[in-house]
Structure formats: C-alpha cells, structure tokens
Design goal:
Its EC number is 1.1.1.1. This protein is an alpha/beta fold. It folds into 2 domains: 202 residues, Medium-chain alcohol dehydrogenases, catalytic domain (Quinone Oxidoreductase, Chain A, domain 1); 135 residues, 3-Layer(aba) Sandwich (Rossmann fold). Helix content is 28%, strand content 24%. The chain has 13 helices and 15 strands. Strands 3, 4, 5, 6, 7, 14 and 15 form a 7-stranded mixed β-sheet that branches. The protein has a 6-stranded parallel β-sheet with strand order 10-9-8-11-12-13, with helices on both faces. A two-stranded antiparallel sheet has the order 1-2. It is globular and about 60 Å long.
C-alpha cells in the first residue's frame, strides 16, 4: 500500500510500504476512507515529539471500513464502517478503568502515528478495537465524522470539561485554529455568558464568530485590556490555551481571574515559564491533559442529530494520494485559510 512515512525532523514521503496485518486478537485492520491532518502531525514533523521514530506512518484520525478483525474483537465486524479514535485503550489497566484512556499502561493510549503506524495510509492496524473504533450510523458522512477522531473530543474534554465551563462564564480561547474553534462550538453547549476568541489571523477570527464566539480580538491588539474591560477588571473564568507556544500560555495566565481555570489544550514543544510569583496568591487552577476520548459516543450521537457544526471546519478536500500537497496547504494555514483538510480515498 501507499502511506505517508515520517523520516525525521522536516522529512516525510508518500511511498509504498507493507500492508498492515493483525498482530493481536484484539486488533482490526481498517481500510481508510477518510483521514485528516492534525496540528500534532506538524509538531512531529518539526521534531517536537522525539518518541515518534523515523519510519513511522503518520496520522491518528480516520473513518474507514473494517477488512479484518481479530478473534477477540466483539464490538465490530468485517464490513462495518467505523470511526477510528486517536486513542486506543486496553480497557483493563487502572487508568482505562477510570476512563483515563490517554494514560493507558498496557501499550495503548495515543499510539497511532506516534508510537506505531498511523492512519495516513490506505490501511491501518488499530489495536484494542473494542474501545478504539466506533460503528457509524449510515446517515453520518465519513468526511464529517473524521473530525470526531480527535479535535472535537480533545476540545471538549481537555478544554471545556477540564476548564469547568459553566452558565454565565466568561470564556477566553487563545488560538482559533481547529482545536480552538471546536472548543468554541462545544463551550457554547454550556451557555457561557460570553466566549472571546484570540488569534492573529482574521480569517480564523471570522470562523470563530460563526462557531460560537461572541467577541473576537487579534492577539496583537491588547486582548488583556479587552478582557479586563468586558469583565469589570475581574478577568476570565476559564481560559483555554489552544496554540502550544510559550507566549500564548503566559498570556492565558494573565487573562484568567483569581479563582479561575486555565485549561491547556495546545501541544508544547518548548519549555514554558510558569510565573508562580504572580499566580501563587490567586487560587488559579491549571489543567493539562491528553484527550481520553471517553466522550466520543456522546459526540457521535450529537453529530448524528445535527448538533455539531463539523462542516464549518472542513475547508479543503484532497485525495489521499495528494497528502503532500494537503500538508503544504495545512502548514501554511495563515495564507491558505485552511482549518481542517479532509483526505478521502479514490477520486
């Protein structure tokens, strides 16, 4: 088959590789019908994720059809169309029993495109299939459902739920890329008083308005002053970091009110300064996390009911064999306006 293979920092290639095979009885092999590119993939390509070794097929998001299933698989069968989750839980260890699937101790967690071959390929082996793949209703579009592999559960769990968004809250989302936009859409479900989106790209701020932000502000136009003005000097109840760079994290800690919460969603490749000299007295909670995907079944139900604005995020479409072009477009999102690029098999 053909797949996108990582060859070290700054290097990847669409090339022929061996087809995946079942390894454990809990595995399935899935024919990829739709996949996408994540900001985390860009971090891997930059060399920010040293655990990913050269020779690994990238990608951790897909919708596909099961073509092989191990003898131990109970939840799906050959021929089923499924959502492939970005997290593969064993279901047995302490963390999995607590639904902290991202911290799986038995070879699961975030492994696809990270520690084992991933989904940016014609076929992918998915371990721990009973919890890692989800059957899709016939009426759900593959190219829309793929956005529930990662960005919607990540934004919802690590941003909205970890942030503790409540009715009436002032919520600030720093970074209006795909994760930040999905956070705006799912935060809206909790009736906050206002959602403020911060970004440098006007096109992304426009998208944030469409997806639930009440106020938008460029990052270079004093968002701290705006938040103070809108909150009577108090600061935001919940601030979500959805970029993954030191400056934006430090901005979040300045925007949050005393007693508020900073929910870090961004993937950080460099050290960040934690200004405890300012924060120690403010009763601030800082939450970090890797998505666990325990919310995926609920989000799938919402998608099937037409309650999630996933189509707004899919700005560019490519064939799977055009993935190198898709990476270029996604990597230059400030110029191209790309939010999520969707890659589908065939023409």
């Amino acid at each position: 088959m053909e797949a996108l293979v990582y060859h070290g920092a700054g290097k990847s290639a669409w090339e022929k590789v061996a087809d995946p095979e079942l390894v454990d009885p809990t595995d399935v092999v899935v024919e990829v019908l739709a996949t996408t590119i994540c900001g985390t993939d860009l971090h891997i390509l930059k060399g920010d994720v040293p655990e990913t070794k050269p020779g690994t097929i990238l990608g951790h998001e897909a919708v596909g059809r099961v073509v092989e299933a191990g003898a131990g698989v109970r939840s799906v069968s050959v021929g089923d169309r499924v959502l492939v989750s970005c997290v593969s839980p064993c279901g047995q260890c302490r963390y999995c029993r607590e639904q902290a699937y991202g911290q799986c101790l038995n070879g699961g967690g975030w492994v696809l495109g990270h520690l084992i071959n991933g989904t940016q390929a014609a076929y992918v082996r998915v371990p721990f299939a009973d919890l890692a793949v989800h059957p899709l209703p016939s009426g759900v579009d593959s190219a829309e459902a793929v956005l529930l592999s990662d960005i919607f559960p990540t934004s919802y769990e690590v941003g909205v739920l970890n942030g503790g968004v409540r009715p009436g809250d002032t919520v600030v989302i720093v970074g209006a890329g795909p994760i930040g936009l999905a956070a705006a859409a799912t935060a809206k479900l909790y009736s906050p008083g206002r959602i403020i989106a911060v970004d440098l790209a006007d096109s992304r701020l426009e998208a944030a308005r469409r997806l639930g932000a009440d106020v938008v502000v460029r990052a270079d136009e004093n968002p701290e002053d705006l938040v103070r003005e809108l909150t009577g000097g108090l600061g935001a109840d919940v601030v979500m970091e959805a970029v993954g760079v030191p400056d934006t994290f430090e901005l979040c800690t300045r925007l949050v009110r005393a007693g508020g919460t900073v929910a870090n969603v961004g993937v950080h490749g460099k050290p960040v300064t934690l200004h405890l000299e300012d924060l120690w007295i403010k009763n601030v909670t800082i939450r970090t996390g890797l998505v666990d995907t325990y919310s995926t079944p609920v989000l799938l139900d919402m998608l099937a009911a037409g309650k999630l604005p996933v189509a707004e995020l899919a700005t560019h479409r490519f064939r799977l064999d055009q993935i190198e072009e898709a990476y270029d477009v996604f990597g230059r999102s400030a110029e191209t306006g790309a939010l999520k690029v969707i890659l589908t098999a065939g023409s």
